[in-house]
């Protein structure tokens, strides 16, 4: 069965992934901006217990 012969397709698959990882990925990642982490101070909320009118 010819579809089980990986000889011609494996070279195409490996060359495509090689081109993607070596050429296209650095160009694409250059345009993607990541969010810079911001140092936030944790503020503790001053909570008081809720007074229920029926207790």
UniProtKB/TrEMBL annotation:
Sorted UniProt keywords: ATP synthesis, CF(0), Hydrogen ion transport, Ion transport, Membrane, Mitochondrion, Transmembrane, Transmembrane helix, Transport
Gene Ontology biological-process entries: proton motive force-driven ATP synthesis
Annotated compartments: Mitochondrion membrane
Pfam family, one: ATP-synt_8
Primary localisation category: mitochondrion
One GO MF term attached to the UniProt entry: proton transmembrane transporter activity
Keyword Ion transport found: yes
InterPro entries the UniProt entry points to: ATP8_metazoa, ATPase_protein_8
Entry GO terms, CC: mitochondrial membrane; proton-transporting ATP synthase complex
Transmembrane regions listed in the UniProt entry: 6-24
Membrane topology field: Single-pass membrane protein
Family: Belongs to the ATPase protein 8 family.
Protein name: ATP synthase complex subunit 8
Natural source organism: Mauremys caspica
Gene: ATP8
């Amino acid at each position: 069965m010819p579809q089980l012969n990986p000889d011609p397709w494996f070279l195409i698959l490996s060359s495509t992934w090689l081109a993607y990882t070596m050429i296209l990925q650095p160009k694409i990642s250059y345009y993607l901006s990541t969010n810079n982490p911001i140092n936030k101070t944790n503020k503790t909320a001053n909570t008081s217990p809720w007074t229920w009118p029926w207790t």
